Amino acid sequence: MKTNNIRNFSIIAHIDHGKSTLADRLIEYTGTLSSRQMEAQVLDNMDLERERGITIKAQSVRLEYTAKDGETYMLNLIDTPGHVDFTYEVSRSLAACEGALLIVDAAQGIEAQTLANVYLALDNDLEIITVINKIDLPSADPERVKQEVEDVIGLDTSEAVLTSAKSGIGIEEVLESIVKKIPPPKGNVEEPLCALIFDSHFDAYKGVIAYVRVINGIIKPGMKMKMMATNKIVEVTEVGVFRPAMTNVSELAPGHVGFVAGSIKNVKDVRVGDTITDADRPVAEALPGYRKVTPMVYCGLYPVDSSEYDLLRDALEKLKLNDASLVFEPETSSALGFGFRCGFLGLLHMEVIQERLEREYNITLITTAPSVIYRVFKTDGEIFEIENPSKLPTPQEIEHIEEPYVKAMVIVPNDYVGVVMELSQEKRGEFKDMKYLDVTRVMLTYELPLSEIIYDYFDRLKSATRGYASLDYELLGYRESKLVKLDILLNSEPVDALSIIVHRDKATYRGRILVEKLRGIIPRQMFEIPIQAAIGNKVIARETVRAMRKDVLAKCYGGDISRKRKLLEKQKEGKKRMKQVGNVEVPQEAFMAILKID
Ligand code: GTP
C-alpha cells in the first residue's frame, strides 16, 4: 500500500470517557473482526484490565477502511495505557503516530488526564481530532464541552465529531476525519532502517516481541537488527502486523506499524522508546526521547507461608519477562522472614502485580506499606538512596534527607475548591496555581511530596469531592524535608516491616493514630500485647491489646449451626493472612494501617 494511504493514530482520553468502546466500534465498522469474533472489548484483553475497566498495557490494531473518496486506507490504531503510572509509555505510543483522537465525555468535560494526555500529544506535534463522546446521555452538553476544549486547550472544535460509541453514532465521521485530517507518514525506503519501539511483550515460543513503528528503511526476516540503547544485535526471525491477532508479513516499510521478533530472551533488551536499526548499515543517531523507566514506589512482598518463597521468586521472574519496569530483589525482614523488595511505576502498577501474584500464581502474600525512594545525606559525606524505611540510619548519622516531590493537577467543580485546598495543605502541599476551566470547574496546581500522594491523597480527594475530582501528577525532583523514622514495637520488640518515614511535625500524631489503629487490628491473644510507637529511643504513643477472655463461639449458644460455621470460616479466612511476629500474630491489615490514618 502507498505510504500516502497510511494513517497512524492513537486515542487519548481520561479514564472512562470511552476510549476502548470507541476502538471496538472502529474495529467493528471496518470489518476487521466480525461482531461474532469480537470479545466484549478486544483491546483490553487482560482479565484484570477488563475487571477494573482500565487499560494497562498498550495494544495495537491495523484497520482497513474504504473512504468516501473511494480509496482504501490502512489505519494503524495504537492504543495507549490509560493511567498516570504509565505516562512515559503513553508518550512513546504517541511518538509512533501522526495524529490522535482526543475523546472527551460530553457530560463530564475535560478531566486531569485529558489535559495530561493532550499535552503529550502536542509535544509530539500530533494532529488532534476532537471527539465528543457519550452524546446519548441525558446530561450530555456537547456545546459546553466543545467550548471548554477551545478555552482550556486552545483547539479549534468547529469540526469536532460528536459520537456515541455505545450506540454507534458518529463512527463513520470519525473514520473520515482520520483520513482527511491526519497526515500520512513521511519516510524513505532507501535510508538505513530506523524504527521506534513503543511496546513489547514476551511470547513463550518467539521470545520478546517488539512493537515498532518504522520511520525509515525496511525491516524483514534475515537481517541483523540492533537495539541502539542496549547495543543488542540479533537476527530478525519474523515481522508482522496486528489484525488484531499477530499476522506475519514479508516486511515492514516506512510508516508501517507492526511487530518484530528475533529470539530475544530478555525484555530488558527491548526497551520502550529505543530505536531499532540495521546492524550492517546503522543510522548515526537514535530517535530522540529515549528514557529508562525507573520505579517510583517500593514495597516488601512476603509469602505468608515461608515455604512459598521459591514459588514467589519464580512468579516474579515470570512477570518480569513481560514487564521491564518491574524490579525486585531479595530482602530479609526480622519480622516477616524472607521476601522481596519490589519496585513499581506507581500504585496501580503495584496493585496489579500483587493481584496477579495471588490470582495467577496462587501465592498468599503479606505486603508492606508502599514507600518512595529517599535520598539520605550522611554526616560522614556518604550519600545513598533507600527504598525501605527500616534501613534509615540513626538520626545522629544523618545530615539531611531528601524526598521526591510531584506537581499535581486537580480538576474539581468549584464547590469543592475549599476541601481540596484543605486536604492538599494537610498533605504538605504548596499551592501554585488556580484556574477556572469554565464557570463551574476549577484546576488547582500543587507541589506535594510523592509519599503523601501514595498514602491516601487520591482516595481522600475522591471522597471529599464525591468522586468529582480528577488528578494527574508528574515528578519534579528531590527536595529536602525534615523526616524521621517512626518505629512500631509489638510486645517491646521493634517490627521492621512496620517502620515508616514521616515528617517530623506529623510524627507524634501519626504515631498515636497508628498504634490506636493497630490495637483494633491485632487480634487478642492469650496474653497482653503492648503496642508502642517510637522515634529513636523515645516512645511517643502506647496502646494495649488485652488478653483473650472468651471463646469466639461462646455467643453462638444454642442451635444455629450454619451461623457457627460461618463464624469459624471467617476466622479461618482471617488466619490466612497472618504472620507470626515474635509470639504475636499480625494480620495483613496491620502493614497497611499506615495508609489510612488521617
Ligand atoms: P480506560 O480503558 O480506563 O481508559 O477507559 P476507557 O476510556 O477505555 O472507557 P471505556 O470504553 O471502557 O468506557 C467507560 C464506560 O463508558 C463503559 O461503561 C462504557 O460502556 C461507557 N461508554 C462508552 N462510550 C459511551 C457512550 O457513547 N455513551 C454512553 N452512555 N456510555 C458510553
Write the layout of secondary structure elements.
Blueprint: E1 6-13, H1 19-29, H2 47-52, E2 60-66, E3 72-78, H3 87-95, E4 99-105, H4 112-123, E5 127-133, H5 142-153, E6 161-162, H6 171-181, E7 194-203, E8 207-216, E9 224-227, E10 232-235, E11 238-242, E12 246-249, E13 257-261, E14 275-278, E15 297-303, H7 309-321, E16 327-333, E17 337-344, H8 347-361, E18 365-367, E19 374-378, E20 383-386, E21 398-413, H9 417-426, E22 430-436, E23 441-449, H10 450-464, E24 470-481, E25 483-490, E26 493-494, E27 500-503, H11 504-521, E28 529-535, E29 538-545, H12 561-576, E30 578-581, E31 584-587, H13 588-592
Helix pairs in contact: 9-10
This protein binds guanosine-5'-triphosphate (GTP).
Explain this structure.
By secondary structure, the protein is α+β, with helices and mostly antiparallel strands. The protein folds into five domains: 3-181, Rossmann fold; 194-278, Translation factors (Elongation Factor Tu (Ef-tu), domain 3, Beta Barrel); 297-367, Alpha-Beta Plaits (2-Layer Sandwich), CATH 3.30.70.870; 375-481, Alpha-Beta Plaits (2-Layer Sandwich), CATH 3.30.70.240; 485-596, 2-Layer Sandwich (Alpha-Beta Plaits), CATH 3.30.70. The strands form six sheets. An eight-stranded antiparallel β-sheet has the order 10-9-14-7-8-13-11-12. A six-stranded mixed β-sheet has the order 2-3-1-4-5-6, sandwiched between helices. The longest helix has 18 residues, at 504-521. The model is unreliable at 53-58 (pLDDT under 50). The structure holds guanosine-5'-triphosphate.
